[in-house]
Amino acid sequence: MKYLLGYDVGSSSVKVALLDIETGKAVATATSPDQEMGMIAHRAGWAEQHPDSWWQEAVNATHKLKNKYSFSADLVAGIGISYQMHGLVVVDKDLRPLRPSIIWCDSRAVEIGNKAFADMGSDACLGHLLNSPGNFTASKLKWVKDNEPDIYAQIRHFMLPGDYLALRMSGTPQTTVSGLSEGIFWDFAEQKVSQALLDYYGFDNSFIPEIVGTFAPQSQLSASAAAELGLKAGIPIAYRAGDQPNNAFSLNVLNPGEVATTAGTSGVVYGINAQPTADPLSRVNSFAHVNSTPEAQRNGVLLCVNGTGILNSWVRRFAGGLGYDEMNQLAAQTPIGAEGLTFLPFGNGAERVLENRLVGGHLQGLNFNTHSSAHVFRAAQEGIVFALNYGLQVMSQMGVETQTVRAGHANLFLSPLFREAFANTTGATIELYDTDGAQGAARAAGIGVGVYDVKSAFEGLNQIATFEPNEALRAVYAENYVRWEQALNKALGE
């Protein structure tokens, strides 16, 4: 066998990577659609996508890949899947979606989760679930139960977005411990599905698909799916994980003290702890990492800022046709702090780091005689970094230190300004690697089918560069962070 395939199902697109097993390097990648996938938003704070659109884009991306690089499907050893976290897919007895998926940035279930946290008790929730039920998958399923009883009555299984893509590939409904933990269905103290959570929300145990290992031959590509993809039936599906645990895996972040970060549609810092830890206010969250076992627990502490790359893309729409590189160059010509312009990047739904409050995006301090579009570009990137730094202070209280962070050479980490602001605001050294979620999923599939062990899986991973903080710049960024935090406190009414 010569190749591995990795799929990364985001909210903007589906990416596929073809990895050469011998060299450990991606020989081709493809993304579909060319423009961002749309979202369904019937009300403010809602966000849905149809699961079948993910499948169609996976098919399209696979055909693009095959057009770019000729390879024999007979030589594909395994398939791995990474996916947008916390989404809810519900399927009927025929394993067909009953409604569009309620995805990660949808805010409709916030109050349901808050009530569950109060009723079940903080000690029980944090001691067993490590989180408030919050606005996660379980609470979204309760919203369906309360508001769409006809649909709820037809549910055979709930699943996460990656579980659904695997279902379309194999015809077999399955999930993982890591996936159940991100949906807040997993009891860390008992190391099993939380019966207390199921009982509180009134869910039937049969809703949960078969639980399989994260790295394992979970199922096989069906004949019908293979025909659509242009692949060979029988290829093992050997890995699935949420995008942030998978991003950490793709950067070889597997052990306590190691930290990964990404800045795509949302911005995330993800650090590994050996012991189950919980933030009392659930501003950052803990989930089972991809390599966690009952004997050697590895939990990922996740900080998420929803309004990250989506803010940068929103700003671009007003940039008069400029590309991101041009925006970055203009922004870099303005001084640190954007001459008093402050951006709060919270316009993409309720923010966990702000205790699930809907603050909205704010642009403050605008002076018509001083500020240009370049200042707005800079203020947006600095605002994202400052929001991440705000959450890092919570992570520090949980024992996760960020002296060094690893990031893929993608999204906002392509921006020199963003890298400078991140390193000098947080004080962390940035290690930049040539990888992404699709490549990570392919590597992980190699472990799942046994062509790699953990060490050999990363022999093809290349570090591109290292960026160190500068003490003089740190002082300037610190002054501007204080101003940003004051603006946030004012927006929060504090």
Question: Could you explain how this protein is built, in words?
Answer:
There is one protein chain. This protein is of the alpha+beta class and 494 residues long. It has 17 helices and 23 strands. It has a seven-stranded mixed sheet, with helices on both faces. A six-stranded mixed sheet has the order 3-2-1-5-14-13. The protein has a two-stranded antiparallel ribbon with strand order 4-7. Strand 21, helix 14 and strand 22 form a beta-alpha-beta unit. Helix 12 packs across helix 13. The longest helix has 25 residues. The mean pLDDT is 96.
Short description:
It contains 17 helices and 23 strands. With 494 residues, the chain is an alpha+beta fold.
Give short descriptive properties of this protein.
7-stranded mixed sheet; alpha+beta; 23 strands; 494 residues
Largest sheet composition: 7 strands, mixed
Number of separate strands: 23
Contiguous helical run count = 17
Overall morphology: globular
Q: Ranges with pLDDT <50 over ≥5 residues?
A: none
- Roughly how many Å is the radius of gyration? 22 Å
- Work out the strand percent: 15-25%
Q: Which structural category do the helix and sheet elements fall into?
A: alpha+beta
* Nearest-integer average pLDDT: 96
The percent of residues in helical segments reads 25-40%
Report strand order across the widest sheet.
17-18-16-15-21-22-23
- Cα(first) to Cα(last) distance is 60 Å
List the helices and strands and how they pair.
Elements: E1 3-9, E2 14-20, E3 25-32, E4 48-49, H1 51-68, E5 76-83, E6 89-91, E7 101-102, H2 110-120, H3 122-129, H4 137-147, H5 149-152, E8 157-159, H6 161-170, E9 174-175, H7 177-182, E10 186-187, E11 192-193, H8 195-201, E12 210-211, E13 215-220, H9 223-229, E14 236-242, H10 243-250, E15 259-263, E16 267-273, E17 285-288, E18 299-305, H11 309-316, H12 324-332, E19 342-346, E20 360-364, H13 373-397, E21 404-408, H14 416-426, E22 429-433, H15 437-449, H16 454-457, E23 463-467, H17 471-491
Parallel strand pairs: 1-5, 5-14, 9-12, 15-21, 21-22
Antiparallel strand pairs: 1-2, 2-3, 4-7, 6-8, 10-11, 13-14, 15-16, 16-18, 17-18, 19-20, 22-23
Helix pairs in contact: 10-15, 11-13, 12-13, 13-14, 14-17
